[in-house]
Structures are given as C-alpha cells and as structure tokens.
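Most newcomers find our protein records easier to grasp once they have seen one. Read left to right, the backbone structure tokens trace the chain's path through space. Once this layout is familiar, the rest of the handout is easier to follow. The record below serves as our worked example for the rest of this section:


***
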Amino acid sequence: MIAETSWDWASVYPAPAKLNLFLHVVGRRADGYHLLQTLFRLIDYGDRLFFSPRDDGAVVLSNLLPGVPPESDLTVRAARLLQAETGCRKGVEISIEKRLPMGGGLGGGSSDAATVLLALNHLWQLCLSRQRLQEIGLALGADVPVFIFGRNAFAEGVGEVLQPVDLPPAWYVVLEPPVQVPTAVIFGAPDLKRDTVTMRAADWAPGCGGNDLEPVATSRFPVVAEYLRWLAAFGEARMTGSGACLFAEFEHKETAEAVVRALPAKLRGRVTAGLDHHPLSGLAR
C-alpha cells in the first residue's frame, strides 16, 4: 500500500478493502435496518483515487463506472455532501483506478467514499474532525465510517458503533467469484437468520463467529458456493460482507501464496496482507 508523509494534489490516495472476519445479524430496527455485529479488518489491496482542483465549484468524476450515473456514484455524492456540510465552494475532478469488484463484499464503494472525505477535508483545508467525517460518511453508507475511523474495529449497530481492535499480523487469500451479489437481495431474504445472540467485544477472538449472510448468498449464487468449497480445503474459509468474495486467513505469506498457486485456471484470487491502520488515518484527528 502507498505510504506518504506528505499528501497533496499530486498524491495517489489509496482506498483499501475490508474483510468481515465475522458478521452476525442480531436484530432488526423498526425502520427495517438490520442490527449487526462484525469485525472489520483492513487489507493491503484496494482502489486508488486521484484528485485535481477546479475553480468552478463543480464535482466531476472523470471515469464513470459502467451502469452507475454520476449523481449515484458514492465518490461524487461524498464530495458534494462535504461541500454542502461545510459551505465549501471549491471544486474537484476525481479519477478512480478501480481494482475492487462491485458487489464483492470488500467495501470498495464505501472505501472510495471515505477516501474522498478524508482527502478533500485535507486538500480543501476544511479541518473537520474524524468524528464529524464519520457522521457525514454514515449518511452515504453503513460501511463508510470504519474506513474513516482508520483502524480494525469491532462494529455494532448498523455498523457505525466502532471499537478499535488490535489484530495480529496475517495474510489472506481472497477469491473473487465472477458474480455481483446485491446486498439488498441478501438482507431481504426471508430465510436470513436475524436473531444471533450478541457477544461482547472483549469476548471476540480470532476465528470466533461466522457470517450469517453466507448461507443465503451461497444458496442463491452457486458460483459463490463453488469458490467457498474450494478454499475450505485449505483452511477455515468464509464470505466477507454480503458476498461475493471469500477469504481464508494464514499466518505465513508463503502458505497463502501456495494456495493461490494451486488455484484452478477458472478461479480468480490473490494474496494480501492485513493492515493495522488505514494509510490515510493521519489525515484526520
């Protein structure tokens, strides 16, 4: 991942992915939102964002994602929301080097939005606190705050109540099935388990818990189940988020690399390291 001591308009701004080391659905609010408990782990792989200043106040995305109109793109929405919340009249052109799959459960869109908020808060010299940026990010999506929080975290609520967690170094094999899994389809499924018993953050340990969304996703998307079965032959494997991506954790890089070398030609995957902090965590206080 990119490491810089000074961030400016010429910098490349990383938007790392996340893994849900476990994900439990513990209830549902009256407004329909699901109550969750999860452990977010940041990983050393993700998108990269580039910013150029504009003097006309416009927010422009130079490379649109297929099928996503500009007004719906989270990066554009994040920049415009930051303008609205601060009265800032500065503009920006945003370019994204997109490496994370859409509908993969790796938090790509949310991470991109968080990087926009962190970067523009710095570049526009708005001086908003980390907490305020997290509040703005929550309006864009439940996964956005954890990327602004900047650390691995035990999360509750809809995912916005965060407690920092120190995790040991680890390497992950991450598989990317060739399918987009719509989050709304998984959370809307009648057979989704919604009553898992809550745990205390202090009681969580590596390997604890599962992913309550996994049975729903694997039953509706057979290719996810296929990838999961293959990876499970090498260690404890599970799905991240609402899918489609799967992962397994390994203590040593060499072990993880051996698993990826064994991948059949039709399966797509990579090795990546766990992070302790978001690369942009120093941009907010």
Observations:
- The radius of gyration is 19 Å.
- The chain has a mean pLDDT of 95.
- The longest strand covers residues 34-54.
